[in-house]
Write a structure and sequence with these properties.
The chain is globular, with a radius of gyration of 22 Å. With 320 residues, the chain is α+β, with helices and mostly antiparallel strands. It contains 7 helices and 16 strands. The two termini are 30 Å apart. 26% of the residues lie in helices and 28% in strands. The strands form 5 sheets. A 7-stranded mixed β-sheet has the order 7-8-11-6-14-12-13. Strands 1-2-3 form a 3-stranded antiparallel β-sheet.
């Protein structure tokens, strides 16, 4: 990432650290500039520009709210929520490679899906072989988890998100940011279940399936965890779907629900909103280009990168 930044600067670009876009400046439906605030000093400066690429990611909630105030067209959309599941990597290896696996094979991944009779889907996402579950809290008194693997993928645990599809019908509101508010409620509940000190709430899968409190200490790749009943985390409908999905996945990987731990909550699988843009990737205000995952037009690293390439082609075509 450092070398990418240095190459951008070598080519004439600038990178501003500790800087936040706090306002859009417009005239007659066209972008004329943005306000930038130094998050250390609080100093605000105006930056004239006729093109703003909004590649803000799926968790830029303060920016979502600012754009809503500026009446940038957006709508709520379906996404997915759930938990992280963690197993011993040795168990995953044996299931994927067999008991007579030769030495030298890499930590085995998996990818599972379950289509439920009610039309919802339950699926694994961002599976991390030999990886770690991460506390990814980004707002006060709210918790969210994510996963990662180091280059060697040599940790003794494997983890993955287990997600259930949610739609605007689940949000209880038609407000464009209703999905974001739905995420926040789940993250506030996770914070509460974790003891309100940023410990991650955890539960054995078998206890979750039986809706009973666990009593033993649970070892995970995270150090700061707290036993909790994760049935209290998600709405009951989603609990039912998640449990059905876990049991179906257990038919595909033997032991998937045994000696496994759930960690909550995984609420940031993709953006809860989608911005309007036309065939030139432009918003209703000329000069604003919402792209990538935060704009609701991508669902991961590669699709976001492709969306960025398409936007760069639009901008370059305009310069010619």
């Amino acid at each position: 990432v450092k070398r990418m930044r240095e190459e951008i600067c070598r080519l004439g670009g600038q990178v501003h650290f500790h800087t936040q876009v706090t306002e859009l400046l417009t005239e007659e439906g066209k972008l004329t500039g943005i306000k930038l605030q130094d998050t250390h000093s609080g100093e605000v400066t105006d930056k004239p520009t006729q093109a703003l690429v909004l590649a803000i990611g799926h968790s830029a909630r303060d920016t979502f709210e600012m754009l809503k105030r500026k009446e940038i067209p957006m709508t709520t959309k379906a996404f997915a929520v759930g938990v992280r599941v963690e197993h011993k990597q040795s168990m995953i290896n044996e299931n994927q490679y067999g008991s007579a696996q030769p030495d030298g094979l890499p930590a085995a991944p998996y990818k599972l899906t379950a289509n439920l009779e009610n039309g919802r889907g339950v699926y694994t996402f961002c599976m991390c072989p030999g990886g770690y579950v991460m506390n990814a809290a980004s707002e006060e008194k709210r918790l969210v988890v994510n996963g990662m693997s180091n280059y060697k993928r040599d940790n003794k645990y494997a983890n993955s998100a287990i997600l259930v599809n949610v739609t605007p019908d689940d949000f209880g509101s038609s407000h464009p940011l209703a999905g974001m508010y739905f995420q926040r409620k789940l993250e506030e509940k996770a914070f509460e279940l974790g003891g309100s000190d940023y410990s991650i709430p955890v539960q054995k899968v078998e206890d979750y399936l039986e809706n009973k409190e666990g009593i033993e200490n649970i070892e995970t790749s995270l150090k700061r965890v707290k036993n909790a009943n994760l049935n209290a985390l998600l709405p009951e409908t989603l609990n039912i779907n998640l449990k059905e999905g876990l049991l179906l996945m257990n038919n595909k990987i033997n032991g998937f629900t045994s000696n496994a731990t759930l960690l909550g909550v995984e609420s940031r699988s993709s953006a809860p909103i989608r911005f309007y843009r036309d065939e030139n990737m432009e918003s209703n205000i000329k000069g604003i280009y919402p792209i990538g995952e935060g704009a609701g037009y991508a669902g991961g690293i590669m699709s976001s990168a492709i969306d960025g390439l398409k936007c760069s082609e639009v901008l370059l075509k305009g310069e010619r």
